[in-house]
Amino acid sequence: MPVIDPVSRRIPIAEGTFTDLQAHLQAVTNLELWTIPLYLTALASIQADASCIELPPDRLRVAKRPTTTVTRLLVSVALQEMYHLQLAGNIARMFGVVPRLDWPVYEGRIPYVSELPLGVTVALGTANDLNTLRLMFAVEKPDDPYGKRSEPGDRDVPVFPFIQYDAAGEPCYPSIGTLYSVVLQLANRFRAHLHAGSPQLANGLFSAWYGHTGLLQPATVDEAINIIVDQGEGAIGHQDAPLDDPDAVPAQSSYQDPFFAENHFSHCERFQLALDNAGKGVTVWPTTGARSAIPAQQHLSVLFSALLDRLRAAWAGTAPDLGPMFLFRGALAQVYAAGEVPAFAPTGAHSPSYDASIAALAPADGARWASQVQYFFTYTDIEGMKANHVTRIDLASQTQVAANQGAIVGLAADAQMPPGELNEWSEAQQQSFRNWKGD
Q1: What are φ and ψ of residue 164, in 5° steps?
Q2: What domains lie within the chain, and their CATH numbers?
Q3: What is the C-alpha to C-alpha distance for residues 277 and 353, in angstroms, rounded to an integer?
Q4: 3-class state of residue 159 by DSSP
Q5: I need a surface site. Which of 33, 50, 69, 141 has the fewest CB within 10 A?
Q6: Nearest CA among 109, 225, 10 for reference residue 214
């Protein structure tokens, strides 16, 4: 595994300062943000998924289902990365840091990670592209698959003894796990700086699924870091976050965790399953490489820019409004439909306004199923509604959505669909759906 960004400054943990902790908290929020477009871009590339991936037999007692698909693997990881961004941002706020949320760049290196497997290129790509699958696996791969725990069953992040920076002055480590190891040690050293009353984000969806809202107290900072590492980087070789108890099957409620089976594997393991499948059964949108999707790329960038602004504002103390997040599936699909891989390029002077982007994705005079309405529903909505023991509407079916249009209007208006108190359709989206004629 070649070193692509060598360490230029190394400091013993015992000599670390509160400024070092703040720099590392900015790093982990940026890194969690960086993973989300990477995974969502691969997910949105899937036009049809006939994959059938067997789950390891030794996990079936817990997972409760024998197989999964590439789509389900990607969705389940992307959702937990959103949870990890929420946790990382909340930890930062408790130490007085408002997340900067730098615009993600997909070239050269994985942010803050000094090593990259030979032959892997950092770039956005499709769900059947082997480089993309290898990159996603590399993001989550631990240094040591056994984690070097001091005691059997110890859930603490493995200790990494140094604070490290690259030539640009940015934190720089062999893996995400080692980065979080340093964050945990510095956080414990500077616990006197914690402010429990700082602005935080909490999504009810995660509370229902993981038993944690993401709202933190000083006593739960360590647990939050361990959840991120155990679910994601897989430092102990398997996930042992709250729902991994075989007896912890979610109670019957309006929304169960639709990815219960997949969530019993670390992200590292899930990407290994997808990589082993090597794209079999996955049909993706054809991409030509021609620059025919400029308007669609601009709309995507505007939505992403608006989401970053609203996240920054929410962590600065304003009321959360994350509406742009729930238009992403449509924006990504429209780029693929135009023959390109989404670029997530920064917005420029000639980019449309956010209102114009909303109008493009949710026209007020009524949307159409093929170009807009089917993309109003995220993968979470689709799978979650299937698991809803009250409604069980198939939101991927034009016929069922048309037949239940009135009920869906009511659920969206009451913020029950999408699930979670932050997940609300914009008024433009609601109006566009109300005006839909079922075609």
Answers
A1: -130, 140
A2: 14-283 (1.20.1260.10), 292-431 (no CATH)
A3: 41
A4: coil
A5: 50
A6: 225
Work out the burial of residue 254: count CB atoms within 10 Å of its CB; fewer than 13 is exposed, 13-18 middle, 19 or more buried. middle
306 touches 175 (CB < 8 A): no
Question: Tens of pLDDT along 102-151?
Answer: 999 999 999 999 989 999 999 999 999 999 999 999 999 876 543 444 44
What's the rounded Cα separation, in Å, for the pair 428 and 439? 19
Q: Where are the beta strands (DSSP E) in 287-429?
A: none
Q: How far apart are the two ends of the chain, measured CA to CA in Å?
A: 52
Q: Which amino acid is at 291?
A: R
Query: Residue 79 corresponds to which tokens in the numbers above?
Result: 């959702």
Please tell me the pTM assigned to this model. 0.91
Please, what are the averages of pLDDT over each run of 10 residues along the chain (439 residues)?
Answer: 84 96 98 97 95 84 82 93 93 96 96 93 96 95 54 55 95 90 93 91 73 80 84 54 42 64 86 95 88 84 93 92 83 91 87 84 83 84 72 87 89 68 74 89
Residues 6+ apart with CB under 8 A from 196: 94, 216, 217, 218
Query: What pairing do the DSSP bridges indicate for beta strands 282-284 and 162-165?
Result: unpaired
- Give the DSSP H/E element, type plus range, for residue 192: none
CA–CA dist 280, 295 (Å, integer)? 32
Find the length of the chain.
Answer: 439
Q: Which residues of 124-137 are buried (b: 16+ CB within 10 A; e: fewer)?
A: bbbbbbeebbbbbb
Q: Which amino acid is at 109?
A: R
How many whole angstroms separate alpha carbon 78 and alpha carbon 329? Answer: 12
d(CA 88, CA 224): 8
The region that residue 236 occupies, defined by phi over 0 for left and psi between -120 and 50 for alpha, beta otherwise, is alpha
State how far the Cα of 22 lies from the Cα of 41, in Å rounded to an integer.
Answer: 30
